[in-house]
Amino acid sequence: MSTAPFPTVTAGWPLAPGGPLTRPWQPPPGRGPAAGAQNAPRAAAPPAPPACMSPVHSPVHEAFERQLAPLWQRAQAGDEAAYREALRLIAARLRATLRRRLQSLPDELEDLVQETLLALHVQRGTHDPAVPVSAWVMAVARHKLVDLWRRRGRREALHDTLDDVDEAALAAHEPEAGSARDLGVLLAVLPEAQRAAIVLTKLEGLSVAEASARTGASESAIKVQVHRGLKRLAALVGAAPSGGDGAA
Amino acid sequence: MKTDELIQLLARNAGPAPRALAARRLAPGALLGLLASAALAAAWLGWVPMALYQHLGPWFKLVYAGALALAAAWLAARLGRPAAPTVGPLRAVVAVLAVALLLGLGSWWSLPEAERTVALMGHSALQCPWNVLALSLPPLGAALWALRGLAPTRPVAAGAAAGLFAGALGAFGYALACTELALPFVATWYTLGMALSAALGALLGPRVLRW
C-alpha cells in the first residue's frame, strides 16, 4: 500500500557508489538493464561499467590527480599562477581523453576542450574539496561531451565512459591547437557592461580595482559582470558549435 | 582562439573560488518556497485551529515533512556538484521515508479492524496528494532555479531530488491546513503527494537543468 511511492522516487537513481556518472540518461521509472538498452538501440554492449571516470583505476589517472591536486588547492584559494598551471594540465589531459571519443569529429576536439575549461571555470565553486579534483573535472567533461553528442543527434556514445586515455597523445604534448571560434566575435555578443568588465580585467590585465576606477562601477559589480559574462560565454559556446557543418 | 589564450583569460584576476555555493542558492529558494506554500495553504484552505495541535497527527506531519525536506535538500545540493558522493543523503532520505511508513503501518496494525479504513482514507484521501503537489509547485520552481545555478551532471536524479525537496516543503505547508489526524493517512497520502512532486521534478530535470 503505502510503499508504492518508494520505487518511483529511487528506482532510476544510481545508488551504487561509483555508478553516479555512468547513466544520467535513464528515465527514473526505468527498471533494470532494459531501460539502458532502450536508450541505446544500436549498442549491443552492456550499460557502462560502474567504475567510470573516477581517477583511481589506472596509474595515469593517479598521476594526474597527484599532479593536479596541490595546484588546484592553491588555485581555489586564489593563486593565479597555480590556477593557470592547473588549467594547462587539465587541458592537456582533456585533449588526450576526449580525442578517442571524437574520432568522427576531430574538428570539435579543441572546441570541446575550451568549452569544458570555460564550464570548469564558471562552476569552480561546485568543486567539493572532499572529492578528487580529477573526478570532478572528468564529470564536467563527460557532461559536456554528452551535450555535444546530443546536439549532434547521436545517442550511441551516451553510455561511454571516459576511462581510457590516448596515452600517445598524452605523452606527445602536441603543439597548441586552436578552435575555430573567435573570442572577439563571442565577446561582441555580450552586453556592454559584461564585455567591458571582461576586456579590462581579463584581456588588458587591469586589476579589479583599476577596472572599477576606469569604469566607475564598484569592484563587486565588476566581479559580478565578469562572472556573468563568462557564464554567458560558456552558454553561447555550448549553444552554437563553431566550425560545424550546420547539422541540425 | 588558442586554448592557451583562453586559459590566460580565465586565470587572470580569477581570485579565490566562490564558497558555499550550494547552500547559498538553495536556502533562499527554500525559504521563499516554504513561505509561498504556507501562504497559499492559508489563503486557499485556511489554517487548522490551534486546538488540533494537542494531537499527535499534525506534529507527525510537520516533523515528517521537515525531516524529508532536510534530507532531500542535502541530496539536491550533492547532485548539484559534479562527482560528489550521494550515498549519505540517499540513505537519509530512505531512512526518513522508512520511519514514516513504519509508523503509519504500526499505527494501522494497532487499531481495531473496524477503524482501519477510516484511519487510512480519512475524509480527504483523494484530494490530499494533489493538494500537496499543488502546494509544492512554488518551491519546485525555486529549487530548480537554485540547481540551475549549480552544475548537475545527472539531470533526472537532480530534478527528482529537487522535486522531493519541493514536495516535502509543499507537504509542510499543507500540514498547516489539513485536518486529518491519523498516522496511516499521513504516511500514505502525504508520501504519495511528495512522490508525485519528485516524479514531476524528474520529468522537468533534463529539460530545465541545462548548463
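Residues 65 and 168 of chain B are 5 Å apart (CA to CA).
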